[in-house]
């Protein structure tokens, strides 16, 4: 029972770290990368569709993304979705591909993105701690129901604390790398 609780908690903590990694990838830096477009939804024949399902992405230069739609009819919708997003870019359509050139980030904008990254990291840390708390509650219920002893419960709590420390440190490493990437000129 304890091992089930621990393995479930660890897998959820891994999920929280992966979610943080995805959130960080969506934060724009001076460089172009396809992950920036992950959350964009395009109105495709009346249905909101993720942009990733409608086109391929290429990054020929550090600050340029080429978006090649599978269906040429969707180009206007893709352009509109990119223009209306919070990316702060203006797409250019040449009839075959949509070219997105990322402007240089100002120092003020970089600082805003660092704050955003820190808040996303804190959300991930809180999620990991909540997972630990729920797992500890489950262990305490087992003790209360006399299914396990106090010693087993303390050992399980130590293991959960170890997992928590490990995954919070992983989140901190991701944040550190993202901050360095954002502040790099």
What does this structure look like?
The chain has 185 residues and is α+β, with helices and mostly antiparallel strands. It has helices spanning 2-26, 75-84, 107-144, 150-183; strands at 41-44, 47-50, 55-61, 64-69, 92-93, 98-101. The strands form two sheets. A four-stranded antiparallel sheet has the order 3-4-6-5, with helices on one face. Helix 1 (2-26) packs antiparallel against helix 3, helix 1 packs parallel to helix 4 (150-183) and helix 3 (107-144) runs antiparallel to helix 4. The longest helix is centred in the last third of the chain and has 38 residues, at 107-144.
List unreliable stretches of 5+ residues. Answer: none
Quaternary state of the chains: single chain
The CATH architecture of the largest domain can be given as: Orthogonal Bundle
Q: Any idea what the shape is?
A: elongated
> What's the order of the H and E elements?
HEEEEHEEHH
Q: Tally of extended strands?
A: 6
CATH C-level class of the largest domain is Mainly Alpha
Q: Major beta sheet, specifics? A: 4 strands, antiparallel
Strand order of the largest sheet: 3-4-6-5
Question: Could you give me the name of the CATH homologous superfamily of the largest domain?
Answer: Ribosome-recycling factor
